Amino acid sequence: METETLYERIGGDSAVRKLTDRFYDLVFEHELIARLFKTDKETIREKQRLFLTQFLGGPQLYSEIHGHPMMRARHMPHPITEDDAVAWLQCMAQAVGSLDLDPELKDELFNRFPRTAFFMVNCETDV
Q1: How far apart (Å, rounded) are the C-alpha atoms in residues 70 and 73?
Q2: Is residue 125 included in any domain, yes or no?
Q3: 63-99 pLDDT tens trace
Q4: What family is it from (predicted)?
């Protein structure tokens, strides 16, 4: 018996697009972490959509286009503090909360992010 991936259970591509768009609407305006996202905003959204698709068990789109995610290495040029990780998670919590999903599924989805967010921390003090 095949089990559905989290990607499939939340609604696939349409849900990931909604999540990504809502998340970056919040991030790009966030006073603490907006500084981390200075390149082309549409490129940032698209890379995140591809990554989340893969991260949640969908097609390996990010790897097909950009190679192995190597997320920590890709984030090393940007100083990221624990406060940044918390702010990022707050934005993600709001974005997940905006989806039309069962609360338990929202919790399962959100719980995929804290470990990764804190793994990106690479400096102790604010910049």
Answers
A1: 5
A2: no
A3: 887 777 666 566 656 789 999 999 999 999 999 999 9
A4: Belongs to the truncated hemoglobin family. Group II subfamily.
In a domain, 124, yes or no: no
Assess if residue 126 is contained within a domain. Answer: no
Q: CA–CA separation, 95 vs 98, rounded Å? A: 5
CATH of the domain at 68: 1.10.490.10
- Domain of residue 102 covers 6-119
The verdict on residue 85 lying in a domain is yes
> What is the model's pTM?
0.89
Cα distance between residue 126 and residue 113, in whole Å: 22
Task: At 7, list the tokens.
Answer: 């990607």
* 127 CB-side CA count, 13 A: 16
CB 85 within 8 A of CB 121: yes
Q: If you compute the radius of gyration of the chain from its CA atoms, what whole number of angstroms results?
A: 14
Q: Which residues contact 126 (CB under 8 A, 6 or more apart)?
A: 81, 83
